[in-house]
Amino acid sequence: MRFTARTSSDGVTEQFFTLGEIPGVLWTPEGACGTRPLILLGHGGGQHKTATGIVSHARRYAAEGFAAVAIDAPNHGDRPKDEEFGRIAAEMRAGMAAGEDPGALVAGMHGYLAGQAVADWQAILNAVQRLDQVGVGPVGYHGMSMGCGLGIPLIAAEPRIRAAVLGLLGVHGLAEDAARITVPVQFLVQWNDQMVSRNQSLALFDALASTEKTLHANPGKHEDVPSFEADSSLRFFARHLS
Amino acid sequence: MRFTARTSSDGVTEQFFTLGEIPGVLWTPEGACGTRPLILLGHGGGQHKTATGIVSHARRYAAEGFAAVAIDAPNHGDRPKDEEFGRIAAEMRAGMAAGEDPGALVAGMHGYLAGQAVADWQAILNAVQRLDQVGVGPVGYHGMSMGCGLGIPLIAAEPRIRAAVLGLLGVHGLAEDAARITVPVQFLVQWNDQMVSRNQSLALFDALASTEKTLHANPGKHEDVPSFEADSSLRFFARHLS
C-alpha cells in the first residue's frame, strides 16, 4: 500500500493511495490511532472514488470516528478501461436508447465487473486493517446503484462485513447472492426512480436473508436521495458497528 | 381543563387531566416553562391513552424537551361506549372471523369515530397550547394503525399540525383526506403485516400529497415495529418542529 498524498481539514485526514493496480482514498479522524470501525464506500456506475456523494459520506463517517475507504471500481476513475468493458458499455447505452429494461442491462455490466471488484475489496480490506489508525475492527459497506450491485456479491462472500447500507438497484442477477446475506441492511429506494422499477427494488429488499433489514423510500428520481438519509446511514452504522 | 394527578420521574412530568368528556395525559420536561413543540399521540384500536407504546414514546419526546399529549379516542379507554360503536365492533369481529378484508372493516370503524376524534383533538390543542409550559409552538402528530386512521382526517383539517409520523394502515377510506396533507410525513410499514396488505399500505403512502414524505418498512407483523423507529421518529420531529 503506497500513500501518495495526504491532507487534513475540519478534523478529517484524507490520504490517497494505490494498492497494486487499485487507486483509493482513506479518510480517518485527524490524529487517529488505534482500532476503529471501517466503512467501505462503493461508488455508482460511471463515477469514481472522489465523486461528491462518496467524499461527503466519507468525511461524515470520519468526523464521527470511523475510518472510510473508497476505491475506483474496475474500469472506472483512474483505472484503465478494457475492450470488453467498452463493448458492454456501448451495448448498455444502445439498449437504453432503444427502450430496453435498464435493470437487465445494468445487471449485465455489474456481472462483468463483480469478480474483480470483490477481489479488489478483499485486498483493500486486508491492507487497510493492517494500518495502526484502522486496525481489525468491525466493517460496514455502503453502496448505491452500481455500488450496491458490486456490494451484494462482496458482502455475500466476505464475513468481515457486518452491516450494509445498500439500494437504488433492482433484483436482476442478484437474488442468489442476496439470499446469502444475513447481516443488518438499510436499503434505500427512490420512489420515482427512472432507472430502477419499484417492484424490482422491493424484490431485491425481499431477497435479502437478513432478519434485520429496513427499507427507506423517498419520493424523487435515482439521483434525488434526500440529505437526511446520510444522517440515518451514520446512525445505522453506529448502531451496528460501535 | 382539569388536572387530576401529577407525578414526575426521570426528568419527565406526567399529568392526567380531563377536558369536558375527554380524558388525557400530558407529558412535559420536569420544571418546563415556556413555549415548546408539542406532539399529539393517537393510540391504536382497542388501546388507550396509557398503552405501553404511547407512554414510552411520550416520555421519550418529553425527555428531549417536547410536550406530548395523549387522549382516549371516542369509545376507548375511560370513555363510555355507545350502541352504534358496539354494533360496528361486533360486525368487524364477525367479518374478520369470516375472512373478509380487514382493511375495509377497520376503515368502517375509523370512519365512524373520525368526526368526534377530530373535534376532540382540536379542543385539546386549543387547551394545551394555553398552558405556560407548552404555549403556541409547532405541533406534530404521531399515530399508527387506528391512530393513523383518525390522524389523517385530523391533519387534513388542522393547519397547526406541521409534521406527522403515521403508518400501519392501508388507503381504504382515506385517499381524499391523504390528498389534502402536504406536511412532511414519516410513514411506517410492517412488511409482513397480518392486518394491512402491503399494496394498501404503499397506496396510502402514495396518496399523501406531501413533497417530503419518507417510508420506513421493516420485516415483521403489525405489532413488531422495531425499537429503533422510536429514535427515528424523534429525529424526524426534531428536524421539522425545532
Automatic annotation (TrEMBL), chains A, B:
Top-level taxon of origin: Bacteria
GO molecular function, one term: hydrolase activity
Residue span(s) of domain Dienelactone hydrolase: 55-211
InterPro entries assigned to the protein according to its UniProt record, in alphabetical order: AB_hydrolase_fold, Dienelactn_hydro, FrsA_esterase
Keyword Hydrolase: yes
The entry's keywords: Hydrolase
SUPFAM superfamilies the record matches: alpha/beta-Hydrolases
Family: Belongs to the AB hydrolase superfamily.
PANTHER family, sorted: DIENELACTONE HYDROLASE DOMAIN-CONTAINING PROTEIN-RELATED, POLYKETIDE TRANSFERASE AF380
Protein name: Dienelactone hydrolase family protein
Organism of derivation: Actinomadura nitritigenes
